């Protein structure tokens, strides 16, 4: 089954709790929380207070995507606030093993992300250690960007690596995922879809958008399962 992970970066923050309850009820598997530091990416977003505020709002897992230069510095704060899964970038931690251990020692799940210009096979040595590999399908920093079409081949390549090194590892994609791009990435092997604009900016509202993405993904998954 493909998991849908609404990215709250695109949500109306004046109604954040209600919107998270809505996507939870609509069937979202997890809530994706984008943390930006203005260094690793040219933008600022939110910190652990948002995780703390959302923790009582949903039982679904809270997934923190650290787009920051020094993830180790902020890790404890997010874990204490209630994060269930913490994802950080291979670009800033070329040896990610110590951070992965710290996350696992806290009883939480660890994810490793990489940008569209990083050779996919560089993640291979660490796939056996993580619960999730995040293939960025835009350069991180801003929501609402166009999906980079060459990502399809990268997802396919990552799926092959995951089959070899750790078949239970999630393959997540993030950036420009919508009703048009979702079927292609799922057919290529993605099983977790992060979507911000396509869900919180949807004309028909987040509930319809979550259900539509889930239906499209379920259909596309049949082509590779
Ligand atoms: O990581 C991100 C930006 O760096 C966002 O999660 C991602 O871009 C999702 O937003 P959208 O679905 O609007 O593209």
UniProtKB/TrEMBL annotation:
Alphabetized UniProt keyword annotations: Carbohydrate metabolism, Cobalt, Isomerase, Manganese, Metal-binding, Zinc
The protein's required cofactors: Mn(2+); Zn(2+); Fe(2+); a divalent metal cation
UniProt keyword Signal, yes or no: no
PROSITE patterns, per the entry: RIBUL_P_3_EPIMER_1 (PS01085)
UniProt: substrate binding residues: 7, 65, 141-144, 174-176, 196-197
Active site residues of this protein: 34 (proton acceptor), 174 (proton donor)
InterPro entries: Aldolase_TIM, Ribul_P_3_epim, Ribul_P_3_epim-like, RibuloseP-bd_barrel
Function, in words: Catalyzes the reversible epimerization of D-ribulose 5-phosphate to D-xylulose 5-phosphate.
Name listed for the protein in its UniProt record: Ribulose-phosphate 3-epimerase
Taxonomic source organism: Fimbriiglobus ruber
Gene coding for it: rpe
